[in-house]
Amino acid sequence: MTDQEIIHPSVTVYSTLAATAARWPERAFLNTLPETANIYGIAAREWRYRETMEEVDRLIALYRSAGYRAGGRVMLLLENRPYFFLHWFALNALGLSVVPVNPDLQSTELEFIAGHAKPVLGITIPSRVPDLEIAGHASGAPFPVMTFDDSPPPFASTVVAPGDLPPLMREAAMLYTSGTTGTPKGCVLSNLYFIAAGHWYANAGGYCTLNLEGEGLITPLPTFHMNAMAYSLMAMITVGGCLTALDRFHPKTWWKSVRESRATGLHYLGVMPAILMSAPPSSADRDHCVRFGFGAGIDATLHAPFEERFGFPLVEAWAMTETGAGAVIAANLEPRKRGTNCLGRPRGDIELRVVNENGNEALPGEPGELLVRHAGADPRYGFFTEYYKNREATEEAWEGGWFHTGDIVRRDGDGDIFFVDRRKNVIRRSGENISVVEVESVLCRFPGVLTVAVAPVPDDIRGDEVFACIVLDGEHTEVQARAIADWCLERIAYYKVPGYIAFVDEVPLTATQKIQRGELKHLALRLLAAPRTVDLRSIKKRRGS
Known about the structure:
The protein has about 550 residues and is α/β, with parallel strands linked by helices. It is built from 16 helices and 26 strands.
């Protein structure tokens, strides 16, 4: 049977959890290891499904008594703490949606999200309460803010409950994703989106087969991304498994955490295997329970050596926040063609095209843009619902009945898909998508900046780094470059701040005064070692580091 036939219209994220808890009440569900607990100042513990439901039901009663109802949105800035999930489940039960917030975001970014999503409540850690309150007032749409262990304030919004949509199709979350425009897009994600992601993972098979005997996944990836929130979490709920969410990736203690978690699978990004392979070989390299890793972006030259050293396959996969489980490509079956950036071939529930610049089907081996849709009656099944308040962008993305990913791939004669390049105008740094237009718009507001153009340059550890070419009315000094970077650090997430600033006389423009992105990439590479280029990577640190 297909997912469309077995998922009932009344099913939600909360009811899915409740069903699993009723089946396996004493199984471990959420696991916080001592290292993560110490960093967060919370208790190290496992939450069993029964305990989870008891706490979630307690939160539901508090929200209900305070008047919270379907149709509202709640901002969650809770890092990777277990209370991120507990509050989401409780709010989901009442029909509210959550807006997960990257804790690295700063004033300008928080203000935008607050004004765009118009939340009825913010939930955060004590140190970030002022930040959300200031963002709400600055956006013109203030909202109350509480910590994760407070009782909710009275509901005072006039939000309208969702119409006749069945619970399955109602908004469960809105995630913000960087694209080619200056401001992030709010991806509206339904209950179906999350439940379908769990179903996809539970039934993927091959090297990433999950059973019903008590699986465990460990992830250092952030819960405000779809990977951890949809795939890791929902997969474990679907099969009655346990999720270990670390605060982030700690290379020196990674394998210790993997062993302590007893995880049978792990999630990774390309930067992680590269760092782990740089450590000296150890007799404990295979001292773990891991059967597979699931992720994307591994250095092709490290794929086979990593697997041979640590003893399990790394399943390379492709998906986007927008596509969810509606269109996933994963190399979970042989031949995986390791060392070639192979993503595998599409299975029966996905249709795809690879088209060249003329819109025609690309020949085998020819690079082209990847277009995808779900097979069957509903081509948008499992995808995001829409870009919030941006119908034009939604329709543009679905032009011709296909979702236009913007990612460049090629297909060989066997039908396997190979990743070639990231989407236009987006920098991929340590797993984060960074809009060059967004960074440019911030830099342009610095006093004395006449023109700015941002491009990616390669970085051995992070994949890409942010490189800014700046035409400045003022002194072209290292001190000035650092002043610009410090100014940016107060306004945008640290990872978006330029790792390099090059003072130039002009940037490459078209006849219509648009930036020549292709030429800019070449210019940035040439300027890496230029005298007027300032290396600022050492000051790019997350808040509190």
